[in-house]
Design a protein that fits this description.
188 residues; mainly alpha; Nitrile Hydratase, Chain A; 2 domains; two-stranded parallel ribbon; 11 helices; binds fe (iii) ion
Length: 188
């Protein structure tokens, strides 16, 4: 695959169809600037700032863009908040739509047919396989992403984190907790 990509890049560059400096910028963006760290900052802000949380609920695209996280596959965002009653889980049953601007590139399992079908048929079973056991009676709401709309799960804030800085809070927010296959880390 790597050799094939190199060959393609060489040919396209020679033909003047692409600019290798532009390719470097794109690769650097996905290696260093785009990733779940962005989403973790959004969640930490929502935990710390009720006004921001409210904005995130009403217009996630704008609230997220205000932190500088925009771009491909993040054009139309909706934030779904976990509560004591409801746990949210995100899937793309059709393919692999995923909010790149806040979570980076999707994990392999997210794109795999077993996850995509079973997340809607048996979400509780899927979560158990991720090691997540929800309280009895807690509802699971599954959100099916599309090319038009991507979801970000806002996990519940762990107890014992009163007064924590946003930076410290962000360390508790895992990628999986923002997909819904996990929850935020416990405060230690
Ligand atoms: Fe998709």
């Amino acid at each position: 695959m790597a050799a094939r990509v190199r060959a393609l890049e060489t040919i396209l560059t020679r033909k003047g169809l692409i600019d290798s400096a532009a390719i470097d910028v794109i690769v650097d963006t996905y290696e260093t600037k785009v990733g779940p760290r962005n989403g973790a900052r959004v969640v930490a802000r929502a935990w710390s700032d009720a006004e921001f949380a409210d904005w995130l609920k009403r217009d996630a695209t704008a609230a997220i863009a205000s932190l500088g996280y925009t771009g491909r596959q993040g054009e139309h965002m909706q934030a779904v908040f976990n509560t004591d009653e409801t746990h949210n889980l995100v899937v793309c049953t059709l393919c692999s739509c995923y909010p790149w601007s806040v979570l980076g590139l999707p994990p392999v399992w997210y794109k795999a047919p077993p996850y995509r079908s079973r997340a809607v048929i048996d979400p509780r079973g899927v979560l158990a396989e991720f090691g997540l056991k929800l309280a009895d009676g807690k509802k699971i709401r599954v959100w099916d992403s599309t090319a038009e709309l991507r979801y970000l799960v806002v996990p519940q804030r762990p107890s014992g984190t009163e007064g924590w800085s946003e930076e410290r809070l962000a360390d508790l927010v895992t990628r999986d907790s923002m997909i819904g296959t996990g929850v935020a880390r416990e405060a230690l």
